[in-house]
Amino acid sequence: HYFNKAHLFWVNKTLQPTNTHILPPSTATMRELRVEDALMYLDQVKMEFGDRPQIYNEFLDIMKTFKSQEIDTPGVIRRVAALFHGNKRLVLGFNTFLPEGFRIELPLDGSPFPVYREPGRAG
């Protein structure tokens, strides 16, 4: 696979520890990601939207915006969930890259609109 700088930029961002200084060491270790995980996810996105490269490029743009801290974790969750709307596998697969305590879920009522949980907030 050929990955350009934007791909590796996203991989580097997702593999950087987030707030590990406030997490117990065992928790921080459990959230360790491998480069292979990020590359595999990128490959899934690329394959899923092979006929619409603008979606893949928009995903990379969202990640760049997140890296530059123009949007926060809830913001990146909302944008990725909206971009991949209707694709349960990609929406839920993004959980792998979220900081501890954040989680995207699909409602039990069968609604296709994902919701997310964040640390310290119920529902």
**Helix residue percentage:** 40-55%
Shape: globular
The rounded Rg comes to: 14 Å
Helix-strand topology string: HHHHHHEE
Total number of helices: 6
Strand content: under 5%
Count of extended strands = 2
Mean pLDDT: 75
- Structural class by SSE content: mainly alpha
> Low-confidence parts lasting 5 or more residues at pLDDT below 50?
15-30
Please give the alpha-carbon distance between the first and last residues. 40 Å
In spatial order, strands of the major sheet run 1-2
Q: Could you explain how this protein is built, in words?
A:
With 123 residues, the chain is mainly alpha-helical. It is built from six helices and two strands. The protein has helices at 5-15, 25-30, 35-48, 53-67, 73-83, 88-93; strands at residues 103-105, 115-117. Helix 1 (5-15) crosses helix 3 (35-48). The radius of gyration is 14 Å and the shape is globular. Residues 15-30 have low confidence and may be disordered.
Mind sketching the topology for me?
Blueprint: H1 5-15, H2 25-30, H3 35-48, H4 53-67, H5 73-83, H6 88-93, E1 103-105, E2 115-117
Antiparallel strand pairs: 1-2
Helix pairs in contact: 1-3, 1-4, 4-5
Short key terms for the protein model shown above:
123 residues; mainly alpha; 6 helices; globular
In short:
Helices cover 51% and strands 5% of the residues.
